[in-house]
Structure formats: C-alpha cells, structure tokens
Design a protein that fits this description.
Length: 438
C-alpha cells in the first residue's frame, strides 16, 4: 500500500486481504482498449492487460483478482475541508482510547495521517446506518438539520430512512452537502465508517494462453452525483490519459522509485476461487455458458483452455460447448464478438446464441429468452450431465436463469419428478455454478 505517513501502525496485525490467494503485487498496465462504441446507447466497457511477469501469480480461467481501491482526492479533500482539518491532514497522529470500553476498529491505524486513513482505509461511499446518523446528529448545529437526522435515525422514520437514504444510496459526502452544519469530530467517522474493501474482477484470459499477463474487462459505473466507480473511474482516466495528476488522483499508483514518477501501478492480488467457478479436467461433459454483458469475460478464458486442450489432444473426446450472450445492440456493445465468432469457426464453440435488448422487432431480447428458445436442447443437455456456468449481476441474471432452466425442464422433460429440486441438486454437485456480483 502506498502510505502518506512514514509509519502506519495498526493495533495488532495489518488487515488481511479478503479471500487472498497471493501476496499484493503492483502491476503496470501494458495494454488497454475500449470494447464498446462511444455512444450514449451503451455503457463504457474497457479491457486492460496487467503485466504480471515479475509476480508469483498462477491462475486459471474463472479466477478473479482483487484491486485495492482508493477514495478520490477530491472527496477526501471535501471531508477534510468540511471538518476544518485541512491543515492537519498530513500530520502524523496517534489514536488513544478514551476509556477501557472503547475500541479502535481493526481497519483504522492507530498511527498514520488523516489523509491516508480517509484515502486508503474508510469507505466514504458506504450506506449509512441509523446509529451513525444518530451519532452525527449530535454534532449538527442547525436545529432543522439536526431534527431531520434524528428523525431518519428513529423507529418512526424507518420509511423515510429507506426512501431517502438507502434507496438513494446517500453517503457521508451527501450528508455533509445536504446538512452543512453537521460537523462531527473525525473520531466519529473513524468509529463508524467501514473498511474500504478491494474490488473483485474476473480474469478474461487463460494462464495457458499467456502466464505473464492478466486481462480484465469492466464497465464504468455511473453512480450519479458526478461519481463513477472508485476503481473503474481511475482506470478509465488512465486509459483516456486525461489531464489528471496520477500521483494523487485516487492514489491508486505506487511510486516505488522516485525517479520513475510517471509509472502507473495498480495493487492487485489473486483471490481464492471459493465458488469453484472453473472447468473440470474432464472436458467430455457438455458445457453451457451463460454471460450477458461483461459476464461473458471469464468464458473467453474457458474457451482458450478448451482450445488448448483440443490442440494438445487432437484425438480426445470433448463435449459440446454452447454459449449464451446478451447486450443492447450488436453495433454498440457486442463485446468480444470477434473472439467468440473465432471460437465458433474453429469448432471450440458449438453454438453462439445472442440476444439484443434494444433492437426493434427482435423477439430474443434477453439471454433468458435465448435459453428458453433452446429449451428442448437445454433440457436434453442437462439430462446428459451438462455443467452450467452463469456469470452476471446477482440482482437479475442469477435467479432469472435458474427460473428459466426450471421452466425448460418442466416443459421438455417428463422423467424428473421435481425440476426445482433437480437444479438445486445440480448446485450442490457443482454442475450449476454461478459467479455473480452486486
């Protein structure tokens, strides 16, 4: 981690990286490209390649990396300025317990600087709990502002809290803007704000294809209030080479050598593949891949591994591979179209089923529709022992695909007694594996 203070000390061991399967590595970006058109009709999606030749990373298709995020300098400066702490921002501090019952959160250093803690340690964009709202209300001078915060934190204000805080994803930055007289001591923020967590990203490529590179693709999250995703926003800025100060913007770079101030490095690490989202060694089993949008990313690596295995064992027996992909418009955001059609032409992929949600007079608008259209084939493949991999948004695709698979079995299979239980059993047997994100 790139520290502002010469010494950063925690009350105990340094916080562990969640699901870590490697040490932290500061990777340079060797290549980048935009995968979607520059059009308001689609999201901004990019692919970047990290140079990891000097790391000890080993990985396979389906694995993920964690990227250590940083809070933007403009947001950190806003907090410091609002709390009149700018002059103290870079001075070393030491936290002391007020009494025996007090406890310093494990993710907050007992010795550091306020700027580093606000940049590296605290999640400034987290959803605010009622207890936090109540705590900061006590330091709100203006009566009307204080009463609103007290109401939002009360039992009577539960509906308003859900409507105006949770649903609108209001964070501490918004609170200080909406309630300018709210100026709690920095200790309150240190006590209540949670840890700034690493962001996981699926690896696009296979280790067998290139062991010295890790590719990821991502869509830039537009969060409103002129905010983008912490990590995706910085990576986009780097790709577009905007006029930013790379040393300070989000500080998601590390200057290991002061003579190389232009070198942009991103702290990444390998994550444990707890869900088992990876190909088995037995490739004779039929495979079904379902990944709309950037959910297709890990399947590029899967197909690379299958192609590698076929080249290595040209006389071997391999199961069929069917892939379902969806986007808005084939002219705008059909990401990895060239690669997927290449796999299809080389018989690595047996069928490519696509759906376009924003194309007029198109009956197959979503991957769920495409799966249902192939329902009879899907039902037979499931009975033949197919393994199904789904990658996408947990709020939509994960549950909807499961429902569609149950409908396929219900309509086209008369042998199984309870199709819902069968899919659940497939999950337990790791024949139906989902890699979903929030």
């Amino acid at each position: 981690m790139c520290n502002y203070a010469n010494t950063t000390i925690y009350n105990g061991p340094d916080p562990k990286l969640p699901f870590a399967n490697s040490e932290l590595f500061y990777a340079t970006i060797s290549q980048s490209r935009r995968l979607t058109a520059c059009d308001q009709g689609c999201k901004d999606v990019y692919e970047i390649t990290f140079d990891v030749k000097d790391s000890n990373f080993t990985f396979k298709a389906g694995d993920t990396i964690g990227i250590i995020p940083k809070n933007p300098q403009v947001e950190v400066d806003f907090i410091l300025n609002h709390l009149s702490l700018t002059s103290q921002a870079d001075l070393p501090y030491t936290l002391l317990l007020g009494n025996k019952e007090s406890k310093i959160p494990t993710h907050v250093p007992v010795k550091s600087t306020l700027r580093q803690v606000l940049t590296d340690c605290l999640d400034l964009r987290c959803l605010l709990k009622k207890l936090f709202l109540l705590a900061i209300s006590r330091y709100t001078k203006e009566d009307n502002e204080r009463q609103v915060l007290e109401y939002l934190s009360s039992k009577e204000g539960s509906t308003a809290y859900k409507t105006h805080i949770l649903n609108k994803q209001i964070n501490i930055l918004d609170i200080f803007t909406l309630f300018p007289s709210c100026k709690p001591p920095i200790e309150v923020l240190l006590s209540y704000l949670p840890k700034l967590l690493p962001r996981p990203y699926s690896i696009v490529n296979s280790y067998l294809e290139d062991s010295n590179a890790i590719k990821i693709c991502f869509s830039v999250m537009n969060l409103g209030n002129n905010r983008r995703g912490l990590t995706t926003g910085l990576l986009e800025d780097h790709i577009l080479n905007k006029n930013i100060n790379l040393e300070h913007s989000l500080n998601d770079l590390c200057l290991t050598d002061h003579k190389q101030r232009s070198e942009f490095k991103v702290p990444i690490y390998m994550r444990k593949n707890i869900s088992g989202f990876s190909l088995s060694e037995n490739l004779e089993t039929p495979l079904i891949f379902i990944g709309p949008g950037t959910g297709v990313a890990p399947f590029i690596g899967f197909l690379q591994e299958i192609e590698y295995a076929k080249k290595k064992n040209s006389k071997g027996k391999f199961g069929t591979v069917d892939l379902f992909f969806g986007c808005r418009n084939p002219e705008l955001d059909f990401i990895y179209e060239k690669e997927l059609k290449g796999f299809l032409s080389r018989n690595v992929l047996n069928s490519l089923n696509v759906s376009f949600s924003r194309v007029d007079n198109n009956e197959v608008k979503y991957v769920q529709d495409a799966v249902m259209n192939e329902g009879e084939k899907i039902a037979q493949l499931i009975k033949d022992g197919a393994n199904i991999f789904v990658c996408g948004d947990v709020r939509t695709i994960a549950e909807q695909i499961k429902d569609v698979l149950i409908k396929c079995l219900t309509k086209y299979d008369n042998c199984l007694e309870n199709h819902e239980k069968y899919i659940v059993q497939m999950e337990k047997d790791r024949r139906y594996i989902v890699d979903a994100w929030c």
